[in-house]
Amino acid sequence: MNKLIELKNVTKAFGEQVVLRGIDLDINENEFVTLLGPSGCGKTTLLRIIGGFIEPSDGEVFLGGKNILNVPAHKRPTNTVFQSYALFPHLDVYENVAFGLRIKKPERAQLKSRKKVELVELTEKIELKKIEQAKLNSSDSQFTDLETQIKELEAKKKEIIKTYRQRFRVLRKNREDNIHQKVMKYLKLVGLVGFEKRNVDKLSGGQQQRVAIARALINEPKVLLLDEPLAALDLKLRQEMQYELKDIQINSGITFIYVTHDQEEALTMSDKIVVMNDGEIQQVGTPEDIYNEPINKFVASFIGDSNLLEGIMKDDFLVSFDGVDYECLDSGFSKNEVVDIVIRPEDLDIVERGKGPINGVIDSVIFKGVHFEIDVKTPHRIYTIHTTDYEHEGKEVSISFFKEDLHVMEKW
Ligand SMILES: Nc1ncnc2c1ncn2[C@@H]1O[C@H](COP(=O)(O)OP(=O)(O)OP(=O)(O)O)[C@@H](O)[C@H]1O
Ligand SMILES: [Mg+2]
Predict the structure, then answer these.
(1) Which ligand does the CA of 45 lie closest to?
(2) Is the pTM of this model over 0.85?
(3) Half-sphere exposure of 44 (CA within 13 A, CB side)
(4) Whose CA is nearest to atom 7 of ligand 1?
(5) Which residue ranges form the domains of the chain, and what is each CATH number?
(6) Average pLDDT, stretch 179-191?
């Protein structure tokens, strides 16, 4: 995997308030990276630093090995999709998507300046000849020579103007063909072929979101920055769009940096999740890493539902909580170190009283569509358990689990 972006010790303060504290992060080509964390943790600020909309107070941002801090936003190979799509309401779908290509006219500008150079040169020549001619008598033979030369040059000037008119026509035609090809390519990618002529205010939220994405992709940026782009959509559409966004990312081969505070979104789409809290990176890893091996209590509680408890590492592979010692897979802690322990609700089992190490009483049962969410009250705490087996409230039960389901973490 090739490294595309490298953040080194990126720090940002607004006045007294430090909102990013020394962020170090690598982002690879073609990667779907999600910045995940609670409101106010600095996700948008970090995204805007990458996009060039704000400067860090300290640190470096490299893109393709080059420091880009002096490169202004519009010259960076990045493009942004915001939460409010900011579409142009007076343009249809086609023109909204084509917009980015229309404002870029490098060939036209080149042609225009070439034409200008040629014409200025000719006009100067003609003027010089006219000045020379004015010094002569009309009966001089040189006078008539000059007369012929001036006429020739003027004819040439007309010819040039005509040629350029033709060139501009061809350029315009090619450009339109090129725009059409690209607009259709990206409308296809976001599933909006057939909507070209539709006014954007007559689209659903999800369709508007897709127009915004096509519009951002058409300039073929190396990196697409997305700041909670699905926040305005309802749950069902949001879930659909998660899969579509992932497909779009894979098919376009562009690096996506996606900001969200929704852990489900992050787990569904990302190759790499960056969990942030209070201006700091807590953990970087694949969705599986983050879910199965949370590095601390914050990550564990932020990703997925969890039972979080405090315990003591009595020895390598031996952890104690609520007064009972349990075997575990963890080692390397100091003797009697206080640790955090996470147990996922789906890893706990409700068994017959006496068949598991923890006794309790069924406190509540909620049907969640696929499983039951059952709270079991024990003398020390309430455990949340996900199971497909129904239990009735008030029943005396025990809880069991495997030693690999105890995730022991250093306290932060
Ligand atoms: N221009 C600004 N001036 C002063 N403070 C700012 C500015 N922009 C952001 N902040 C502060 O910086 C902190 C981080 O803001 P940021 O927008 O990066 O958070 P976020 O993680 O994107 O949160 P959310 O999920 O709510 O969008 C917040 O406390 C915010 O109030
Ligand atoms: Mg934000």
Answers:
(1) 1
(2) no
(3) 10
(4) 14
(5) 3-77+221-285 (3.40.50.300), 88-218 (no CATH), 305-410 (2.40.50.140)
(6) 92
CA angle 251, 254, 260 (to 5 degrees): 100
Write out pLDDT tens, residues 20-45.
999 999 999 999 999 999 999 999 99
Residues in a beta bridge with 315: 318
CA atoms within 13 A on the CB side of 268: 16
Q: Report yes or no: 372 and 386 within 8 Å, Cβ to Cβ.
A: yes
Residue 333 DSSP symbol: P
CB-based burial label for 274 (10 Å; 0-12, 13-18, 19+): buried
Measured from the Cα of 37, ligand 1's closest atom is: 21
Nearest ligand (C-alpha, residue 18): 1
From 10, 20, 36, 44, give the residue whose CB has the most ligand 1 atoms within 8 Å, as the site to mutate. 44
Please state, in angstroms and rounded to a whole number, the distance separating the CA atoms of residues 193 and 184: 7
Give per-residue pLDDT as tens, 351-398. Answer: 999 999 999 999 999 998 889 999 999 999 999 999 999 999 999 999
